[in-house]
Amino acid sequence: MPEATIESLDHEGRGVAHVAGKAVFIDGALPGERVAFSVFRSRRSYELATAERILEPSSLRVAPHCPHFGICGGCSMQHLDLAGQAAAKQRVLEDALWHLARLRPGVIHPAVLGPAWGYRARARLSVRLVPKKGGVLVGFHERRSSYVAEMTTCAVLPPHMSALLPSLRHLIGGLSLRDRLPQIEVAVAESATALVLRILQPLTADDQTAVRAFADRHAVAIWLQPGGPDTAVPFHPAGAAELAYGLPDFGLVLHFRPNEFTQVNQAVNRMLVRRALDLLDPRPGERIGDLFCGLGNFTLPIASRGARVVGVEGSAALVDRARRNAALNGLAEALEFRVANLFETTEARLAEFGRLDKLLIDPPREGAIALIRALGAAAPWRIVYVSCSAATLARDSAVLVHEKGYRLVGAGIANMFPQTSHVESVALFER
After folding, report:
1. Is 388 a catalytic residue?
2. Catalytic residue selected from 66, 75, 293, 388
3. Using one digit for the tens of pLDDT, what is the confidence trace for 245-277?
C-alpha cells in the first residue's frame, strides 16, 4: 500500500500530497501526517484516495464525534480540532485570494467562531425507501455517493432534531407515499421547529392522521410541498408559531418561512452580522446599499444604526418578507426595497438605486461579478463583501482591486459550518 506525507488541506478538506510527481488528494488525512492510502480514482495529473492507516498522526487529530463520520457525507473534518479547522479555512481563503487574484489582505481578521456541534438550524434531509436496509432511510447522502446514509443520529443537527431521526424513519415508513417523499426540509427557529415534507402525491386520510399525531407528539410544525418551493403550505398544527430568529445586538427579530433562506448557524450569524456592521460602520445620514439582501439579515441592522438603506434582492417573495420584517421592527421609514436581477445588472441599472455611500454585498455561491463590473465612477467608497465561496470572492476581488481602484483592506473567515470544509468569509474594500 503506498504511503505519503501530507503537505496541506485542499478546499474540500482532503489531505494533499505529491507521489511520483502526481498530486494525490487523500480523504481523512491531515497536514504533517504520514499515511498509507488506497486510490479510488486515478487521472493523468492527480489521484483521489482514502487514508487507510495513519502512520504518524497530527497533534491536531481528534476522535470523530459522530459514529457515522466517514460514511455520511454531511461532514468532512470531524477528525480535525476546531482551531485547526479555522486555520485550514483561513488558508483556503488566503490561497484563493493569492492564486486567483494576486491579492493579500492588509489585515487578517480573527476567525468568527461559534458552537461546534448541534448548530445546524437548516438542513435538507434525503429520504429513500431501501427494503434491503429495513425500510426508509432519512439523512444526508453518503460520501461520494447518491445513496442515503443510514443514520440514527446527527451530531451537527440540534439535539432534538438528531433524536427525531429514528421517529421520522418510522413515520415515513408507515405512509402510503413512503417511496414518493424524496426529501424533508428542516428549519429550526429559536422557539419552533418546522419540517417541510416534499410530497409527489397527496397524503391519504390515514397518512394525514399519522402526520398530525407525529407533529403533536414531537411539538413540530409540518408543512407540505407538492411542487416547487412556492407551493409549500402549513399543514399541522393550525396556528403554529411563526419561525423567527433574533439579532439581540441590534434589538431585532426576523421572521421567515421554513423554505426561505436563512443562515444555518444562528450563533455564528449573529457574530457575522456584528463583524460586517463593524467593518461597514454605518452612520446617520449615509445612504447604504445592501445587495442580495434576502429577508433583511444585514439590511435591518444597518438601518438600526441610523443610516438609510436600499435593499435589493432578485426574489419578490424575499423582498416582501424583508418589508414585513422592517415594519415589525419599526424600521420601515428608514428602508426601501427593490426587486432586481443583480446577476444581469449594468452601470445604468445600478445608477437607478441612487447615490450610495457604502455597500454591503452578500451573494450566493455564484458571486457578484456582473454587479462588480457595473460599478462606475460614482461607486461607493467602502464595500463589505460577505461570501460563501472563496473562489468567487477571489475572482470578484481581482476586478475590484485591479480594475475598479479599490484596495483589499482586510479579510477573514466565519466558521459557519464547523466539521465541514465550507468557507464563509467577509472582506473589506475601500478606495
Report:
1. yes
2. 388
3. 999 999 999 999 999 999 999 999 999 999 999
